[in-house]
Amino acid sequence: MENVISSRDIQVERKHFFLEFRENDRGRFLRITEEAHGRRNTVIIPSTGLAEFQQALNEVCDESGL
Fold this sequence. Notes:
Nuclear Transport Factor 2, Chain: A
């Protein structure tokens, strides 16, 4: 069974993003779900990789001038 520790919703143009930090018997993870045009796509990032994921995202944004 999964427990939601923290969650946020973000609306960007016609896309809706759900960010949920969850925990189950295998550990903690971030689930990012995108909903657009009635379809959903999900990415799950284990907590052990969150710092690296965040660093890579920041680098991509910095390099693009965002």
